[in-house]
Amino acid sequence: MLVALTVDVEDPDQPGHGSPDEVATIVAAMDGAGIRATFFIQGRWVAANPDAAAAIGASGHLVGNHSYFHADTRFLTSEGVREDVTRGHKEIETALGVDARPWYRLPYGAGAESPRINRQLRSLGYRHVGWDVDVHDYAMTDASALVPAVEQALAERERAGATHAIVLLHSWPPVTAAAMPELCRFVHERCEGAVTVDQVPDHGAVPTVSPLVGRARNLTRRTSNPSAAHPA
Ligand SMILES: [Zn+2]
């Protein structure tokens, strides 16, 4: 199993959320283990922590845009989506010197199935990157529980025939930073290797074709090729 560790870096002023030190710990653990990961960074976090953000970019990890406001994109107008995406983009470009396109992660993954939102992301040069494994690191209180949870989720995917897994993690829960050296060791020793989301087939795309579109297509097929329903 090839593993793409992804870290959402967000919420600079949320009470109880870790400081930029947590991010530095995560990056140091990955760098020490020779693991390259993908960081989806919120624009407002970059604005609040430009030096810590620049350090992520300087480490050579793949960087994606995690919006500016970290709002639920489904409730934004088209203009609001554009502002959220482009402000995030500009903050990253200014502080990290990195063009984050085409990698975007919608806050909460909300709107990933929306053709409207996906169309708009595409028009801005982006695509949403989902995930296959979510161990809810944000709700964990015991750092020693993180690696076994990831291991179990990966084993389930392996049994289902998957060759890759995109793992969702967050920068701010203290357990994530605390468990990162152990997680990196696990990926090194027990997995086939670490990759970034650009190396994952389909890049964590979420199916966005509405069932109604499928139905319309089937109707067209049946009408245009009536013999298809009656094979010889
Ligand atoms: Zn997020």
SSE blueprint:
Blueprint: E1 2-9, H1 20-33, E2 38-41, H2 43-48, H3 50-58, E3 62-65, H4 78-96, E4 103-104, H5 115-123, E5 127-128, E6 133-134, H6 146-159, E7 164-170, H7 174-190, E8 193-194, H8 211-224
Parallel strand pairs: 1-2, 1-7, 1-8, 2-3, 4-5, 6-7
Helix pairs in contact: 1-7
Bound molecules: zinc ion (ZN).
Describe this protein's structure.
The chain has 232 residues and is an alpha/beta fold. The protein has eight helices and eight strands; from the N terminus they run βαβααβαβαββαβαβα. The protein has helices at residues 20-33, 43-48, 50-58, 78-96, 115-123, 146-159, 174-190, 211-224; strands at residues 2-9, 38-41, 62-65, 103-104, 127-128, 133-134, 164-170, 193-194. The strands form two sheets. Strands 1, 2, 3, 6, 7 and 8 form a six-stranded parallel sheet that branches. Strands 4-5 form a two-stranded parallel sheet. Helix 1 runs parallel beside helix 7 (174-190). The radius of gyration is 19 Å and the shape is globular. Zinc ion is lined by residues 8, 10, 66, 70, 107.
Structural descriptors:
TIM Barrel; binds zinc ion; alpha/beta; two-stranded parallel ribbon; 232 residues; six-stranded parallel sheet; disordered C terminus; 8 strands; globular
